[in-house]
Amino acid sequence: MSWLGGHGDASSRRSGTLTVLDVGSSKVCCMVAKLKPSDDGKLLRGRSHRIQVIGIGHQKSQGVKSGVVVDLDRAEHAIRLSVDAAERMAGLTVDSLIVNMTAGRLKSEAFSATINLGGHEADEADIKRVLGAGAKQALKAEREVIHSLPVGFSLDAERGVRNPRGMVGDALGVDMHVLTGDAAPMRNLELSINRSHLSVERMVATPYASGLAALVDDELEMGAACIDMGGGTTTISVFSEGKFVHGDAIAIGGNHVTLDMAKGLSTSLDAAERLKVMHGSALPGSADDRDLVSIQPIGDDGDVPLQIPRSVMTRIVRARIDETLELLRDRLNKSGYGNAVGKRVVLTGGASQLAGLPEAARRILGRNVRIGRPLGVAGLPEAAKGPAFSAAVGLLIYPQMASFESHPAKGISGLRMTGTGGKLHRMSQWLRDSF
């Protein structure tokens, strides 16, 4: 890690190098970026640093199914390869990373807590105390807290206080959004990273990261949902008044469309994936019955591929896509944040590139839908500017947003190991000092 900060730098914000890792069901992606404090106000709101990607490595994912590590050796191998590639490109060695977490039955809950101020000004310690009180309620057996975020503060009877520092009152209250996940998948993900001699600095929920990367300021402010469609999982996040207020994940993704096609057309997974990318669509076209697509049946070495009408393929794709979107619509309505989202939904993730998906989503979700790409990061190669890289880019943005986040004592295992005062400790220190 190269530390650029602290050289007579009067401001508390410093430069540093940040490494992030997105371990997905279809790809593993590692990015190394330099973060420099920004002077101009032209940035997206809430971003304190300019991000320049200096190294990137990505690999076909192995040993991960529906966002869960199912084979440690293979997952470790894929992680090692992508981190090595990013290190070589950046010209530095990496020892700790920020990682995203998709699986483990993510669950959002709301908690409130109040502390007595006794008419004094609210200072850092008071804010820490009330955040701690809110976070404590969320520690349940076999669940780990991934995020505990203040959604809004209140002073006495006044709600909707954005930043209570320095304000006077008798009672300081906070409404918390706490996102928890199952402990076992989190530990296994961490284990597969530790086996590559790397440590986990922080875990960030995938829906949070994707939303940070793909939503623009107005959407964050007025309320919007971000749906990240990956290979093995689809996650959904809701932002309102600039805050992440709800997250959810389902274990259905683009791979399921491929699987349905392979079964329905009795062809191999590779052939089905190719067909999906080349000809797949969630929209029936007028010429679909006349359009023929050639397919190589499984186990058939004959030279003559089968010809099938494209409409057969579209029906298979559409059935799965509609089912997924209906599930997301129900989850969104059940969350109680359907109104906060209003009419704004942003689709991102690799599987969002399927032809006709925005139209299908408009029809089923009954909202305006756009495809979101990662925003506001310099140095991304052309191939990484698409929606498939939103989660990884979001991890680079995350530390700038994490200043208010409170980590309860139990914390993420990554933070449990930072008592050594080694390099990892320095990175944690930098993250704490700079954001």
UniProtKB/TrEMBL annotation:
Name of this protein: Cell division protein FtsA
Quaternary context: Self-interacts. Interacts with FtsZ.
Keyword line: Cell cycle, Cell division, Cell membrane, Membrane
GO cellular component, one term: cytoplasmic side of plasma membrane
Subcellular localization: Cell membrane
Pfam family, one: FtsA
Chain ranges of the SHS2 domain: 18-214
UniProt keyword Cell cycle present: yes
Stated role: Cell division protein that is involved in the assembly of the Z ring. May serve as a membrane anchor for the Z ring.
UniProt record similarity statement: Belongs to the FtsA/MreB family.
UniProt xrefs under InterPro entries: ATPase_NBD, Cell_div_FtsA, FtsA/MreB, SHS2_FtsA
Record membrane topology: Peripheral membrane protein
UniProt cross-references to NCBIfam families, sorted A to Z: ftsA
UniProt keyword Cell membrane, yes or no: yes
Organism: Mesorhizobium kowhaii
Any single GO BP term: FtsZ-dependent cytokinesis
Listed PANTHER family: CELL DIVISION PROTEIN FTSA, CELL DIVISION PROTEIN FTSA-RELATED
